[in-house]
Amino acid sequence: MTNRIISALLFTSLSMTLWAADTPAPAVVVDQVKRVEVSSGFQTVGRVEATERVDILARVSGFLEKQSFVEGSDVTQGSELFLIEKDSYQIALQQAQAQLAGAQATQKNARTELTRAQALKKRNAVSQAQLDQKAAEYDQAKASVLQAQAGVKRAQLDLSYTQVTSPIAGRIGKANFSTGNLVTPSSGVLATVVNLDPIYVEISVSEKLLIDARRQGINTENPPFAPRLILADGSQYEHLGEFNFVDPEVDPNTDTIGVRATFPNPAHVLLPGQFVTVKIETKQPQFALTVPQSSVQKDREGFFVLAVDRNNIAQIRRVDVGEQFEGLWAIKSGLDQGDRIIVEGLQKAKPGKPVSPTQE
To answer: Which residues form the Multidrug resistance protein MdtA-like beta-barrel domain (predicted)?
Structure first.
């Protein structure tokens, strides 16, 4: 009886050994540890602002005779935008010129009278009082000429204001007054011109990021960080910006500091008032060893991954992890570039046991 029991146990043990030997290694998916470029920085929301914005106003009163631009088009600096009727201002200029001519004639006559009186005084033919009177009349005539000259310049200036021009180059908006309307200096904005290239993006850095931002170079003196933009459709703006202004004070109401960056905008993709996501990253590329986040596990001792050696044996590798980004986890230590790690089938793999790896 005892021999039968011993024989049965030996048979069972041999069967299990043979079964274990025939059991295939579990299939897993592996990926290699890669060294990739990573970005260091943070994201925030910014608002696009025009570098220049000018409200066009009427500087003289009159009826609008002409609108010289197409709404929404680009205009050059000094180009004509509106024309105000100029007849009354031409008449005023002619009147001022006539007054100047009269004042100059009076001055010429006063100069002659003064010269004659000075000659007569040498012969004691006139009194000193008479000579002083002629000198005063000459000085008054000179003052009248100066006043008339100022009147001519004022009339010329008013006449020039009838041609309303753009002080900057940019894109003009909608006209608020049409031809035939009476406009005055108090009528309000005739139209607005904004400069769209380059363009500003203004952001507010929170108090928590303020100290770190200062340490990492968020300033206008050759900062190591540079801003990039993510547009509303999720695409990345093609041009890199640069910081040109940092507010010297913290806003006590929001505990933030204002920062402004300049971006090229040749295609006018960015428009004032729109919101964009601003990514503030290092100018110089930075690299790190990375693994998929799905491969990293954690126990009481810390983070680890299951690596596969040359003999396809699963091994625990303790790792020191860094930042997470785009589905990856930066590895500070514990792995080398090219190491194979399990990314799928972790529940089937056992440390120290063989696996059947398939490259992802």
So the answer is: 198-282
